[in-house]
Amino acid sequence: MKVSNAIYPLSLLIILVGVWCFFSNIYGVKTIFLPSPQHTLFSLWSMLQQVEFWQDLLSSWYRVFVGFLISFLIAYPISFASLLNNKLKDTIFYFIEFFRYLPVPVFIPIIILWFGIEDMSKIIIIVLGTFAQMIPMFYDSATAIEKKYSSFNFALKWSKLKYIENVIAKGSAPSILDNSRICLGWAWTYLIVAEIVGAEYGIGYAMIRAQRYLATDKIFAYIIVIGLIGILTDRSLVLMRKKLFPWNK
């Protein structure tokens, strides 16, 4: 990253920390409501030295990774299958629209009843929350490429399936990866909600456990951890995109 590109986010960070310091240290907001930055960082440092923290972190990451991967493996072929036939597309999208507008938390009680509070229930919640969002996004990315190169297909007289395989799938890959970055953020949101409602370990469970003991500093520390995970994951996907698709800026 160029120095000039880092100035704006760094400036924003300094302003936010400055406002935080003002309210916590100068204005006098009680620690139980707003811990100071230094208190939060001290708690974060203490957490990093605890085995339980790493167990919670790895458990949450595992659930997100598996749930997101399953969602992708469901959404990707369905999105391209929707290109084959309009009636098939309409059928798929009626089903998807039903799920898209259902708030995922309404599924949590029944999923916990069926699968308990183990990893499987958290993974299912992530799948329910992300796959129905992925399909329209992937489909839009694919149709954009289909329209762009429709004349190319007309000249070659390829079958629909061959056109999808050789042109649309490859041409839409960068855009689909961008869409996946957005959906991965949603996966973390649904996971934290699921872990708060019912879990024995995980970041969401750790946050609700800290709330019971009024350890607000730990809650803020976990918020920072989740944000840093998001930044690192997103930057990794951006780097992957540049390496895999250097021709698409």
Automatic annotation (TrEMBL):
Keyword Cell cycle among record annotations: no
Stated family: Belongs to the binding-protein-dependent transport system permease family.
Source taxon at top rank: Bacteria
Keyword tags: Cell membrane, Membrane, Transmembrane, Transmembrane helix, Transport
Protein name: NitT/TauT family transport system permease protein
Short name of any one Pfam family annotated for the protein: BPD_transp_1
Source organism (scientific name): Flexibacter flexilis DSM 6793
GO cellular component terms listed in the entry, alphabetical order: plasma membrane
Principal subcellular localisation of the protein: membrane
Residue ranges annotated for the ABC transmembrane type-1 domain, each copy included: 57-241
Record's subcellular location: Cell membrane
Membrane-spanning ranges: 7-27, 61-86, 98-117, 123-139, 187-207, 219-240
PROSITE patterns attached to this UniProt entry: ABC_TM1
